[in-house]
Amino acid sequence: MRSRQSPVLCLLLFALAACARSGTWVDDPKNFQRAWGQSPPADVHIRHSWYWRSLHFTREEAYYFEFGRNPDLMRGFIVENRLLRIDPEASINLPKYSCFERPTWFAPKPIGDYIAWVAPPDASRAVVLQDRMTGDFFLAGCQI
């Protein structure tokens, strides 16, 4: 005999999943954990962050981060996400790789002052920009 509680339980679980924490957080120390599900490594210096998550049953999020120079962390993002190096002056269109207007602190110099990596066409939107002078890097991601 089939239980009548099963559809009700499924609906309740669906409703609870849809109520995941949503909102926008600016320069919040928990933004790294919101984006990647773990605390940042001790040697990571986050200068700025902006994180948004929708109230949706699938994970819809967007973020911008500015990190102090950290070659290992930057390389990890690039390798893990299969980012492709591009000539920023020739082909980068920042709005294409983000879902929201970028914060004023995000990559404020002319685009030629950065080394750029972008997500492959079959992936969610992402861009890493490394300041050629300082080694600091900016990361933007979007999945909607």
Features:
alpha+beta, 7-stranded antiparallel sheet
Give a verbal description of the structure:
There is one protein chain. With 144 residues, the protein is an alpha+beta fold. The protein has one domain (22-143). It is built from four helices and seven strands. It has a seven-stranded antiparallel sheet with strand order 1-2-3-7-6-5-4. Strand 5 (114-118) and strand 6 (125-131) form a beta hairpin. The longest helix is centred in the N-terminal third of the chain and has 14 residues, at 5-18. The N and C termini lie far apart (41 Å). Mean pLDDT is 83; it is low at 9-18.
SSE layout and pairings?
Blueprint (H helix, E strand, L loop, with lengths): L4 H14 L4 E4 L4 H6 L9 E8 L7 E7 L3 H10 L3 E3 L1 H4 L22 E5 L6 E7 L5 E7 L1
Antiparallel strand pairs: 1-2, 2-3, 3-7, 4-5, 5-6, 6-7
Q: Give the rounded overall mean pLDDT.
A: 83
Number of domains: 1
Total E-strand runs: 7
Structural class: alpha+beta
Strand order of the largest sheet: 1-2-3-7-6-5-4
Proportion of residues in β-strands: 25-35%
Note the overall shape. globular
Oligomer: single chain
Radius of gyration from the CA trace?
18 Å
Give the gist of this structure.
This protein is α+β, with helices and mostly antiparallel strands.
